[in-house]
Amino acid sequence: MTSSTTDNLIQVADLVDRPGASREVDLSLPVPDEFELPLAAVREPVRLDGVVESVVDGMLVRGQLSAEVGLACARCLRAVTHPAHVDVVELFANPAALDEEDELEEGYELAEGHLDVTTLVRDALASAIPYRPLCATDCAGLCAFCGHDLNESDCDCEEDDLDPRWEALRGLQLPEGHGPEGTG
Questions:
Q1: What are the residues whose beta carbons fall under 8 Å from the beta carbon of 61, sequence distance 6 or more?
Q2: DSSP state, 82?
Q3: What is the pTM of this model?
Q4: What is the dihedral of CA 37, 42, 118, 58, to 10 degrees?
Q5: In terms of C-beta distances under 8 Å and separation of at least 24 residues, what long-range contacts does 89-95 make, across chains too?
Q6: What DSSP state is assigned to residue 163?
Q7: Does the bond joining 164 to the residue before it have cis omega, within 30 degrees of 0?
Q8: Dist. CA 37–CA 94, nearest whole Å
Q9: 72: part of which helix (H) or strand (E)?
């Protein structure tokens, strides 16, 4: 039996106060409205496959969240599709079961017989998106001078490895042992 959902809400009223009871979930979820990343577009649907289990403190959600993410290559800016898969294990606390000193984590609470997985989806997807996506491991990138895509062909720009701000130091002669290879 799979769980029912409305947008990002999972109905779990039948599992409340029944520790050990569980249900498989196989859900197709929308991307949270407030989820925005520069240069990344999460394509719907977001899939959540796993289990919701009733525990003494609330509901435990375990499974895998997956989605396709449209990105731009960090070197050449070509469009890249990245399959994002992340394992999730999160406790949605029952406020009635918490001690006074326990703190309720915002977005991870059991409320009125349902779980709102918006925060779970947002947090999991943000951590699954690569920091520097590449279209290929050997991507040559763009020419720093003219912007030509070096994966297509070489350009006619002359490479000057020296940053112009360091030009005044080009002729500097350091005493032996004080250069980049020295220890002095």
A1: 25, 50, 51, 52, 88, 89, 90, 91, 92, 115, 117, 120
A2: E
A3: 0.71
A4: -110
A5: 89/60, 89/61, 89/62, 90/60, 90/61, 90/120, 91/55, 91/57, 91/58, 91/59, 91/60, 91/61, 92/58, 92/59, 92/60, 92/61, 93/57, 93/58, 94/16, 94/57, 94/58, 94/59
A6: -
A7: no
A8: 31
A9: strand 58-72
Residue pointed to by tokens 């699954």: 128
| Domains in the chain: boundaries | 5-128
Query: How far apart are the C-alpha atoms of 39 and 124, rounded to whole Å?
Result: 18
* 38-81 pLDDT tens trace: 778 888 889 999 999 999 888 999 999 999 999 999 999 999 99
Q: Are 34 and 122 in contact (CB under 8 A)?
A: yes
Look-up of token digits 């997807």 = 125
Give CA separation, 154 vs 74, 157, 163, in Å.
19, 9, 21
Per-residue tokens: 80: 């890249």
Q: How far apart are CA 184 and CA 177, in angstroms?
A: 6
pLDDT in tens, 162-182: 677 887 887 788 888 766 665
Tell which residue, 63, 75, 78, 65, has the closest CA to residue 129.
65
